[in-house]
Amino acid sequence: MPAISLKVTHAPPGGVDHAVPGAAKPLFRGTGDTDYLCGNCGAVIALGIGPTQRVPFDSTTCSACGAENEFPPSLRG
Ligand SMILES: [Zn+2]
């Protein structure tokens, strides 16, 4: 199961120490096997995305640490 770290576009306001590991819930859940992780704290942001699946946003904020993560162009809908 591949895991890809997303590119962080804005650091979280509280810094990496502010992260709450395990508290984050994936924002997206797909039917594939690729996980996309927060580039700052490693929390799962999109779980099990298939090769043809897309997410409806260019970027999203990690629910664990608050960092803004940018989805790769291939993942945008
Ligand atoms: Zn994070």
Task: Please describe the topology of this protein.
Blueprint: E1 3-5, E2 7-10, E3 28-29, E4 34-37, E5 44-49, E6 59-61, E7 68-70
Parallel strand pairs: 1-4, 3-5
Antiparallel strand pairs: 2-7, 4-5, 6-7
The structure holds zinc ion (ZN).
Structure characterization notes:
The protein has no helices and 7 strands. The protein has 77 residues and is mostly beta strands. It has one domain. It has a 4-stranded mixed beta sheet, with no helix packed on it. A 3-stranded antiparallel beta sheet has the order 2-7-6, with no helix packed on it. β4 and β5 (44-49) form a beta hairpin. It is globular. The two termini are 22 Å apart.
Keyword list:
single chain; mainly beta; 77 residues; 7 strands; binds zinc ion
The biggest sheet amounts to: 4 strands, mixed
How many extended strands? 7
Helix content: under 10%
Bound molecules: zinc ion
Strand order of the largest sheet: 1-4-5-3
Radius of gyration: 12 Å
The secondary structure category is mainly beta
Tell me, what's the shape? globular
What is the succession of H and E elements? EEEEEEE
For the terminal residues, how far apart are their CA atoms?
Answer: 22 Å
What low-confidence regions span 5 or more consecutive residues with pLDDT below 50? none
Mean pLDDT, as a whole number? 87
Count up the domains: 1
Q: Name the beta content range.
A: 25-35%
Q: What is the number of helices? A: 0
Question: What's the quick description here?
Answer:
By secondary structure, the protein is mainly β. The chain is built from no helices and 7 strands.
